[in-house]
Write a structure and sequence with these properties.
Blueprint (H helix, E strand, L loop, with lengths): L7 E7 L2 H11 L2 E3 L7 E5 L4 E7 H4 L17 E5 L3 H13 L3 E2 L4 E2 L3 E7 L5 E7 L8
Parallel strand pairs: 1-4, 5-9
Antiparallel strand pairs: 2-3, 3-4, 6-8, 7-8, 8-9
Helix pairs in contact: 1-3
């Protein structure tokens, strides 16, 4: 039987937790106060998807490796599904207004539409809408 996890927790290092929470709040995300203190917060993406935003010094306690310098390298691109093309545009526009940097231009393949931004900590986020009627389920 293949491994199937019920939840995903993405862990990302951040420079300033308060500014990061403010940034993602402006986009529309919420946080679980039970898992929030001066070192970390739990950003709720959905019922089963969470992003743990960890102050860099605290993040370092979980790894022996160097933290990626997001000014010159990419460790991961967090891609999130959207319900529509309009929602993709709305979320990325809110991120840009909150201080994010545009990363890639919009990409429109007809059946799939995406747009991405770089958050205030340099992490890459991509919003994707896919027309499910075009997916071959055979």
């Amino acid at each position: 039987m293949a491994l199937q996890a019920d939840k995903i927790f993405v862990n990302l290092p951040v420079k300033d937790l308060n500014k990061t929470v403010e940034f993602f709040t402006q986009i529309g995300f919420e946080f679980n106060p039970q898992f929030t203190d001066e070192n970390a917060t739990c950003m709720v993406i959905s019922e089963h998807i969470f992003v743990m935003l960890l102050v860099e010094d605290f993040f370092k306690t979980f790894t022996k490796k160097q933290i990626t310098d997001t000014a010159v390298s990419t460790e991961v691109i967090v891609a999130l599904s959207a319900d529509s093309r309009e929602q993709v545009d709305e979320i990325v526009s809110k991120a840009l207004a909150a201080g994010a940097a545009a990363y890639n231009d919009r990409v429109d393949h007809g059946f799939m539409y995406s747009w991405s931004f770089q958050d205030i900590n340099g992490h890459l986020w991509e919003l994707v809408y896919m027309d499910e009627s075009t997916v071959n389920r055979g």
